[in-house]
Automatic annotation (TrEMBL):
InterPro entries on file: ARM-like, ARM-type_fold, CBPC1/4, Cytosolic_carboxypeptidase, Pepdidase_M14_N, Peptidase_M14
Keywords linked to the UniProt accession: Carboxypeptidase, Cytoplasm, Hydrolase, Metal-binding, Metalloprotease, Mitochondrion, Nucleus, Protease, Zinc
Catalytic center residues: 974
EC number: 3.4.17.24
Lineage: Eukaryota, Metazoa, Chordata, Craniata, Vertebrata
Official protein name in the record: Cytosolic carboxypeptidase 1
Signal peptide from the UniProt entry: none
Amino acid sequence: MNKPKMATEKGNSRVMMLLGQLERMNGESMLRDVEMARQVTTKILHRQTCRFELFGVMPNSRDVQTTLTILSILTELLTVGRGRRVGVFVSKGGTGVLFQILVNASKEFPPSEELMLQLHSLLAKVGPKDRKFGMKARLSGALNVTINLMKRNLLNTKLLLPCLQVLRVYATSSVNAISLGKNGVVELMFKVIAPYSKKNTSLLKVALDALGALLKSKTNARRAVDGNFVPVLLNLYLDWHRNDARHRYMLIRKGLLVCLKNITNIKVGRKAFFEANGMRILYNSSTECLPVRTLDPLVNTSSLIMRKCFPKNRLPLPTIKSAFHFQLPHVPADGPVAQLYSQLPGVDDVVDESDDNEEPEADSDTENDEDEKDNCSLNDDIETDINKLHPKRSIGRSFEELKFYKKFFSELFEDFQVSSFTSRSEVGSERVKQEGSPVNNTRHIQSPLLLGGIPTRRVGGGGSNWGSDCGSEGTEDESGEGAVLEVPDTAQLLPLHDPDLYVEMVKETFSVPRYAEVAYPDYFGHVAPTSKEPLLERLYGVQRSKIFQDIERLIHPNDILDKVVYDLDIPSCPVVEDSGESLKFNSQFESGNLRKAVQVRKYEYDLVLNADINSNHYHQWFYFEVSGMRVGTTYRFNIINCEKSNSQFNYGMQVLMYSVQEAISGRPCWVRAGTDICYYKNHFARSSIAAGGQKGKSYYTLTFSITFSHKDDVCYFAYHYPYTYSSLKMHLSKLEDLRTPRIYLRQDVLCETLSGNSCPLLTITAMPESNSNDHICQFRNRPLIFLSARVHPGETNASWVMKGTLEFLMGSSPLAASLREAYIFKIVPMLNPDGVVNGNHRCSLSGEDLNRQWLNPNPELHPTIYHTKSLLQYLAYIQRAPLVFCDYHGHSRKKNVFMYGCSVKETVWQTNISASSSDLQEDLGYRTLPKILSQIAPAFSMGSSSFVVERSKESTARVVVWREIGVQRSYTMESTLCGCDQGKYKGLQIGTRELEEMGAQFCVALLRLKRLTGLRNHQNLLDLECDIIGTQHVPIALFHVGSSLTTYVMEEDEPSFLEAIDYSAESNDEDGEPENELCCEVQENFDLLSDSETTTGTS
Ligand SMILES: [Zn+2]
């Protein structure tokens, strides 16, 4: 025991003694009070009185002077001691006693001013330390005492200040805020803060804080609008802005902005702000504040308000439905396409609807009914039906239906007569001779790069005058016609690339817009650059400056060009005349999807992406061509109809750029490019009907700046490394060249897609060692590995990973040979060719996400899924279900590569649903493969992996293959679009080399999976794995419920960013959330009434 502690304890006991006296003095009158107050306070007092009776030597006096004396000693005691004494005071029910004295004293007329002053000063000290302060005040009836006191003493600064300080605490409770508003406190506060005056600035500061808190309530905000206080606030802000040259009153200025910010959370508030010229006032004042870094809070809050109040607008499009329509074989009446095309014209018109249809705010007494909605919604997405969690083993289809698929598994039945043995290998080597023909060392390329012999009719367009110039013909020195570019042979750099073959493949690819051009990057090919590409560091204030430029458009509309330079919806597209003043855009090639380009300033363009075909949204992927640029000039590009609420573009990801000039100079590379990149909510929106019945949704802007370094260049920009369907076909054809006599490679066409593209199916394994019975038997009995990729067209990284897998499998390394001898690989490398061809991001031509159709795929509408699932059903039927199923995807919100798997146990842990221990008998084999990957693949992260079965994923490949086909190791492998934050590649953006490496490492991991066991018997293999896992790095913890072995994947995977991406009413830049306050209060009430103590100062 040391001295200071003694002192504190002594102080504490004095505090308690004084408290005891106060209680006694008010004991009698208390009984006459409001029923509710009495109940609650009695509980506190009763409990305390017993202890305080020890100190009960003081006379039971009701003399004001005695009370004052005690209060002043108390004040003194509570002022020293760093708040610990306040804590003791609160925990002993002191707040309640003070309120009681306050209420009692108010009944005297006139109440003693000094007593009121003392009480409020003390309450102002205690309030912030008492979590239940607001509620205690309300229940004791103290709110009105304070308000009436203020009303009577508006000019009495000395008394007003402590009252405001207490009010500021009252108002943090939303229930109190509403009640105070009803009693005219909002209007009262405006009397305190206006007109502008530098007298009593500390009072003003407190008053603004209190007002800001009051205005968080929408009812109060409405009151302020009705009272016409928005112009008052704006003018006050201007006054302070002008008269605070030395920035000494930042807090007052900020306080005014917070009031405006809260008022503009409601629609009428935004309207009033706009009409009061708020945009211009805040824009101009912020511009003046910008050079002073200490004024950043003002600029940021102003920016937030302006963004909110920027009038919502529809996109500059005739309709947000995709520019192209594809006629489906049949249109299900309840499907998305039927709904989309039955919408009335004008559906896209946007009104600011964010406040409409809103219930009037909760009144003071409804607080108890709010239950734990939040807790429920947290697990909404997780499967909670234990029966649905267990794999069901019935295939649900007859063998009659499935036997059709036998033809795709001829390896399981082939007997390898000598003839087939030799002829196969001969065919392989012949192909090498035929198709591996060397490409000319230099080639001459005409620009534009048009396909000959292909009809160039375009759906939705004029049909003539096709093929925008690529721009590289130059304007001065060449006549366009004879423009010739010399290109080095990319085939030397890229052994599996062949431009001529690519063009042949494009000719056989069917696109809805009937593309007749070839993008240079796909033609030349891409070589991964050798230099590292670190995540882009974000410069301070980038987003803010971009947003200010956006707001400037509204403030100075005459500076805006608004010149449409590219427009798919206009038949004569591209519309730009060659004046040299504008960039030229094009994306009428495979996987391209730019719909419109508008030049807004000399070097700034708004770009609008096309929706997925037969839909009106899913904008994220992009791929387009730019030419006609000036060297050394920085251009700003804004893709204005993005939809995700956040993006890795805010966390270091750059766009991809491909320069034809660079390619010609021997560097055919997609490179990470762009500066000043950010992603934020903009003022464009779609109506609630167009958004599918939800609230109208805002769009987001991806902005980036580029400085071009070559004259007469043609550059391409993409969301991620493009990988077209034609590239796949070329690649598969080149893979044939890698076949040796030892490799068994078969390529089948699984089915045709809706638009007539074929869906390839590959079988890769090793040829049997000989045609002896034993060898044939070993061959046929190899476990199957089933892989697929690219069901989501925008996730091109999945294709690059698949490319890595395929090349590894076809490789000459001993590992590859062992792998082929160990397994039979069945691979569907592109589940959604139509989506890829047409530049979709998410869907197929049916306007649906194919990875949500696995439960019940329709053979006509979802042929690739239907037939892939049938293959698996067939395998299940013949009892050859694959050992591993993995569907490759890309992930737009997270870093690294990781897996989603399926586990009953881990799902149960996440949900806390009751399950018997027999329900939880589960083999742990599902963890082995990701575990191995995390050890050998540098980009892979076990920590990001999850094995929870989410309800929203119940129709995905992973879950259906697990549940219906009974594949325990059924996975989705997600590769980041951005980069890594762990391992060897930490801090780097991901490139095709790393993605391909991942695909190869996946194969190596499969081999290790095999070697871990050394057994051919599946069941033993699983058991052994369990042992290994159980005894290795993850012992006991694996069985420990509640451990964080599995991460439940949250919506937001990055820490919230400094600058608010979103500016909606719910998003907060710095303040606490009023909604939570309400919940908190509910809990408080509950605590109080159930007589449980939350704070215990002693012990
Ligand atoms: Zn995906």
